[in-house]
Design brief:
Number of helices: 6
Strand content: under 5%
Number of domains: 1
Order of helices and strands: HHHHHH
Oligomer: single chain
Structural class: mainly alpha
């Protein structure tokens, strides 16, 4: 899976790059990434949404993950249209992510 290799590369790069001393948006890289999906889905309160947006758009450490996630979501949208993913696909994706060490909290 080429996209999984790219995601691994981006995550390794983010772990290797030092976190900024004065984080953009006033929140840490960890906090920004923890809220990435909520922000992309428009589910954050306005103040937190602005902080996450400010951080993700300006942080050299986090920006590659943001651009990857946007591209991935666009590819999924183009492949599926407005259809919701079948439960079987969701389960396969989660199993793949879990095999890579991701744990849904």
């Amino acid at each position: 899976m080429k996209w999984m290799e790219e995601l691994r590369r981006l995550l390794r790069r983010a772990q290797e790059d030092p976190a900024p001393a004065d984080p953009p948006g006033g929140i840490s890289c960890q906090a920004a990434v923890e809220h990435l999906f909520e922000w992309l889905d428009g589910e954050l309160e306005p103040e937190m949404g602005e902080q996450v947006a400010g951080h993700l758009e300006a942080c050299a450490r986090c920006y590659p993950l943001l651009t990857f996630e946007r591209a991935f979501r666009q590819a999924v949208t183009e492949a599926t249209g407005d259809e919701e993913a079948p439960d079987e696909l969701k389960e396969r994706i989660m199993a793949s992510l879990e095999s890579e060490g991701y744990r849904d909290s």
